[in-house]
User: Fold this.
Amino acid sequence: MNLLMRNGTIVEAGKPPFHADVLVLGDKIAAVAAHISQEEAETLTRAQTCEGADGSSSLFSIADFLKNGLNILDIKGMHLFPGLVDAHCHLRDPGQEYREDIHTGTRSAAAGGFTDVACMPNTKPVADNKTVVRYIIGKAAREGVVRVHPIGSVTKGLEGLELSEMGTMKEAGIVAVSDDGRPVVSASVMLKAMTYAAQFGLRVISHCEDPDLAEGGAMNEGVVSTRLGLRGIPSAAEEVMVSRELILAENAGLPVHIAHVSTALAVQLIREAKKRGVNVTAETCPHYFTLTEEACEGYDTDAKMNPPLRTEHDRIAIIEGLKDGTLDMIATDHAPHHIDEKNVEFDKANNGIVGFETALPLALTFLVKPGFLTMSDLVDKMSKAPAAMLGLPEKKVAAGYPADLVLVDMETVWTVNRNTLASKSRNTPYHGWKLNGLVKLTMVAGQVVARDGKPID
Amino acid sequence: MKLHSKDLLGIGDLSTDEIDLILDTAVDMKKIVTSGIKKSNYLQGRTVMTLFYENSTRTRVSFELASKYLGAQAVNVAVASSSVAKGETLIDTGRTLDAMGTDILVIRHGSSGAPHHLARNVRASVINAGDGMHEHPTQALLDLFTIREAYGTVTGLKVAVIGDVLHSRVARSNILCLTKMGASVAVYGPATLMAPGIEQMGARVCGSIEEAVADADVIMALRVQMERQKKALFPSAAEYARFFGLNPENVSDAKPCALWMHPGPVNRGVEMPTLMVDGSQSVINTQVTNGVAVRMAILYLLTGRE
Assistant:
């Protein structure tokens, strides 16, 4: 569409926010300037449409122009971000469409301000071959409203034994490899996977969990698990595996990405590895800086996830890790589950929560508002860094870039309601929470896909 | 002229003069192989035993025929039905065969260094016909012979070696042999199958097949062992063929008449497609023929009469 947004505050990674007008023409950002008059905007719009009318490059005809014209929006007091990129989500498609599918999942993402999402391969069948990868890309093109970037599996069937056809899947469109949901148990297989993936320019995303240490656990091991009589998962289950991946990556000089970091020691291990020059990137998720194991009280299965919610000490360490750059990015780990998989005994409930629609407001409320991160830092962690890790082009609010934009109203406080989520699933621990920051608009390549925190269709 | 050592254990033990001597001798031996009457008496009264602890068609038969064409007695020890199956040690088997008057023991063994171990403990000459992931010197010499036959010299040639360098004794012997004789060697393969430090042995590690074969005079594909898939070293034959197999497009930057070589047995459609295996630039069958001639030369130079 053609849209002139006036008087907004533009936020980009690595520089202070600035006031500007932004003109979107078609699928691109046409101009960013201190002031763009309506006349200038209309002239530019007309120039663009005329270009299209004589059959040249533009997709827009005179008819389109007459129909669409130029919309003008005063966004004074609001923040305009480049589109958010989620490096870690589960769209459950193919195979578990009763939880989520590409249609609903991408709408949920759009509602949360994401323009690009990278989905994990633990679907049914597993995305360990080009056929499933092509299915995901094809369905996303037909039914999705945000860009979907499949992640291929590290090993066939997520079994941790034989490498998947990473080269062939890369040609089909994968952006990384991961056996997320399960650890790659064998260090030897993990080293070979890192070696092979790197040859194809892919990074291995490691789900760090020692299966022996974690066996049978339902929540973090500690006083709360003791009080509730639930079997605990020690933080060492995560830290042992983080150490292993760091050592493998360091020894072989290979890249690795650590998924969903949740413990203080894991943060410290990554911090030290980065100081030594290890090519490691790491993510955490909103639940690890907003919640602790206390949320499991009352056997609330919406607080059950893997890795489990940790202690207050860990939560503070996660925020420190985000502040000092040890944790490069925030991912959602959007993990929809059906009510029937959550409304059961705690130890029998599935792990995970939905995250697309709450991630940005949680980060704004619990990281930006208290001053732990600036808005620019947040854009780095939710757009620039994940895009870089996945090898996607950087998004910018600048002329010539695709019009992938999120408009955020920091002043609006809204209440999370699990029953009105765009996701097909309802498993959120944030029901009833009051959060700052409403996604006023999400735009993918010039198309408005969400408005006021809701998808358009 | 003779070789300085009683054994041929690896390329590393041979001087360039000795390599030239083997190749020059093989020229004459090839005349016997390709003549109507494949018979001579250079090794009359000698006994050659082949002791293969690993499967082989071409190398074992090649040594057996080479011995016979030279007039020697050739005996194959069938390891599977021998005392080895009863638990006899390598040294005891070797000494037993030695005591029967064997002149040459040709050994293939899954353990790197087994021929060296045997050679120290027997009177007979020991020829290494492939030891673990270490060396396969007669293969490298027959490859060298094949290249020299085509180009007249090896010095200054560019050779690309593509595939499983990590597990390949053929690659190690060839890299040693070719660089010793003045050729340059570029290698490429799956990163999981690249031998650490191979560049310190004289090979240039490349980032793509195209880079490795650019301007090459010789392109040598290495055999892929399909069971390596189970060890997470590569995903599948199809993906191997797509990214690490030779094809007419990805070798198009090599010299127009570059030789296409393979130590065999070939996985058709994996290391290279049938149209290359059977193509006009393929010298795979010539390698086999030359193998007999080169092994005759080696047998002769180790124990033959002047």
Observations:
- Residues 284-303 of chain B form the longest helix (20 residues).
- The domain at 11-135+288-303 of chain B is CATH 3.40.50.1370 (Rossmann fold).
- Chain B has a mean pLDDT of 94.
- Chain B has two domains: 11-135+288-303, 137-283.
